[in-house]
Specification:
Largest sheet: 6 strands, mixed
Number of domains: 1
Distance between the termini: 39 Å
Number of helices: 7
Strand content: 25-35%
Strand order of the largest sheet: 1-2-3-4-5-6
Order of helices and strands: EEEHEHHEHHEEEEEEEHEEH
Bound molecules: zinc ion
Radius of gyration: 16 Å
Shape: globular
Number of strands: 14
CATH topology: Metallo-beta-lactamase, Chain A
CATH class: Alpha Beta
């Protein structure tokens, strides 16, 4: 399994393109700059199977409409994020000049613990509210895509609509309870590891 990281847009959002030896791929957070996403898919000869949104903030979905026009794939998102996806204020997309999808026909709404198969690999969706109500992480052993819930030695903001500090702390605790060697791939900034954040993340070590 290979993971490409594209850092996209004004907010330097991490967009991940994951693919296997058969060149089948999925994308996590088509954040911005569809032309670069498309170029990357084409240059690697990838067959995009689906997209996943960790949450619906404008800086994570900026290329979604363009992506769906060219690649009409299903989009997995947590059920509790629908409200944000329909609202420019909640999704901060108005502020960021991003247009929301016109309809949800491409969407597959998921719940905590649901799994999908990616060509023999198991992906598990983990509800991680706190940054947004329907934030989710995606676990694909040994990787976890964490969106804006946990970052290297930090956590996501909770001062946006629907944010909740207590909830983000429990979500982060849930993430670091996964196997120690789980590699955390956040929505912004550098990757980290579950064991490291468990020991060193200042937000998780307040007694
Ligand atoms: Zn966000």
């Amino acid at each position: 399994m290979k993971i490409l990281t594209l850092v996209l847009g004004l907010y330097q959002t991490n967009c991940y393109i994951v693919y296997n030896e058969k060149k089948e791929a999925f994308i996590v957070d088509p954040a911005s700059d569809f032309s670069l996403i498309e170029k990357t898919l084409i240059s690697h000869g990838l067959d995009l199977k689906f997209a996943i949104l960790t949450h619906a903030h404008g800086d994570h979905i900026g290329a979604l409409n363009d992506l769906l026009e060219v690649y009409p794939v299903p989009v997995y998102m947590h059920r509790d994020e629908v409200k944000a996806l329909k609202n420019e204020r909640i999704s901060l997309s108005g502020l960021m000049g991003v247009s929301l999808p016109q309809d949800l026909k491409a969407f597959i709404l998921v719940d905590d613990g649901e799994e999908v198969d990616f060509s023999g690999s198991k992906l598990k969706f983990i509800h991680c509210p706190g940054h947004t109500p329907g934030g989710m992480s995606i676990y694909m052993k040994p990787f976890m895509f964490t969106g804006d819930t946990i970052f290297y030695r930090s956590i996501g903001r909770t001062d946006f609509p629907g944010g909740d500090y207590e909830k983000i702390i429990s979500s982060c605790e849930k993430i670091v309870s996964y196997p120690e060697d789980t590699i955390l791939l956040p929505g912004h900034g550098m990757r980290t590891q579950a064991s490291e954040e468990k020991a060193l993340n200042p937000f998780l070590n307040q007694s």
